[in-house]
Amino acid sequence: MSEVTRSLPGLFPDELERLVVSWGEPAYRGRQIFHNIHRRGILDPSVMTDLPLGLRTRLVKAGSEPVRRLRSIDGLTSKLLLRSHDGQEIEVVEMKTAPAGEPASRKTICVSTQAGCAMGCVFCVTGQFGFARNLEAGEIVEQVLRFSTPTEPVSNVVFMGMGEPLANYGESLRAIRLLTHPDGLRLGARRITLSTSGLVPQMRRLADEHLQIGLAVSLHAAKDELRSSLMPVNRRWPIGEVLAAADYYVERTGRRVSFEYTLMAGVNDADEQADDLAHLLYGRLCHVNLIPLNPSEDASLHASSTQRALAFEARLRHAGIAATIRVNRGRDILAACGQLRLAERKRRERLPPLPLGEGWGEGGERGRTSAATSAPSPALRAV
Ligand code: SAH
Ligand code: SF4
Asked: Which residue in 77, 85, 91, 268 could disulfide with 63, CB within 3.0 to 4.6 Å?
């Protein structure tokens, strides 16, 4: 095992077996623990009643505790703030949708992979916090398990919360392997999407893993000068290298890559910039997700108008590029990661702790979340 100190949800069945055997228990107890955690979603060993009491008391409870839970007025989106054993705050978002043409509704969980992020993208609240530490695989999996119920299992997981998953490569991959484990949640790899700001060597490495997960690449600009000003990582790996790595991913996996493009008024949303993007991506097996900007710390950045977003989308489509505008609620899931933590910090400076489960729109969150979850324009579609 690596040097990472693992919580129980971060261990595979064979590792749990070795652990319990080292305590003088039979190996099958290890598989039982895995089943309890990953199939039944039991994170507290004291209620794993199929285990002997002596073993239950030896197992250490999973690391983080829920601090705050918010639910949108329509009940479809929930956010959970967890506090880890060392006081790090981790955001998780759940989004329920009923996509047209699909028999069952979807429950998508947006997970964080790091506490903070070192990449420093100017439009991102998490980026402006700076980096605290990598999350351990168990801490990533636990975010999913907290939303999984026997009657409403999780159907999709997106690595689009706080942090750069490919900067925490080993633990993100381990989390993916735990989530897809046949004795656990059994999530299909195709139902997992990992989003990256474009760490080229890790993108190539991921392509060689023989996984069928989806890859989303945050592009946000078609020209290096602009992208570098928005995303410092572009100075290290410019657009040409990122696209070459994305092409390699398509080549190795046969899966279409999506490009995320957050629309910022007057920054990257002009017709000419849509044409540059279409030119850049032409002929590629890809899809562009246009994301209206969520409020960020940089007061000079604003979301593009709906009209501008639609014009940008139309221009891409006219040029033969598959593109969709992500609805506000979906977008909210991404960028609101970071915002809840920020709101909680501001709240703590002013208020005593609040109980879990209060409605959305409470206190300092009201203005931001209610605006972000208001009914989207009928012209905007979910992806
Ligand atoms: N670090 C990874 C994954 C987490 S961020 C990445 O950057 O891809 C997930 C997505 O949210 C990225 O596409 C990111 O650019 C976008 N995002 C960040 N801040 C945002 C904001 N304020 N408004 C809209 N999208 C934002
Ligand atoms: Fe990090 Fe992604 Fe935010 Fe950039 S957008 S700072 S890579 S979390």
From this structure: 85
pLDDT tens sequence across 40-62: 999 999 999 999 999 999 997 76
**Is the CB of 268 within 6 Å of ligand 1?**
no
Task: Identify which ligand lies nearest to the alpha carbon of 168.
Answer: 1
Q: Which two tokens stand for residue 276?
A: 């540059």
pLDDT at 282 over 90: yes
Q: How far is the CA of 124 from the centre of ligand 2 (A)?
A: 6
Distance between Cα 104 and ligand 2 center (Å): 32
- The pLDDT value given to residue 342: 61
Res 357: pLDDT: 39
Q: Is 337 a catalytic residue?
A: yes
d(CA 16, CA 351): 42
> Alpha helices, DSSP H only, in 148-223?
169-179, 200-207
Catalytic one of 94, 337, 344, 365 = 337
Residue that wins the pLDDT comparison between 69 and 207: 207
Q: If you average pLDDT over every residue of the chain, what do you get?
A: 86
Strand-pairing partners, residue 108, are: 95, 156
Environment class of 174 (CB within 10 Å of its CB; exposed 0-12, middle 13-18, buried 19+): buried
In sequence order, which residues have a C-beta less than 8 Å from that of residue 7 and are 6 or more positions away? 60, 62, 63, 136, 138, 139, 142
Give me ligand 2 centre to Cα 316, in Å.
25
Ligand nearest to the CA of 302: 1
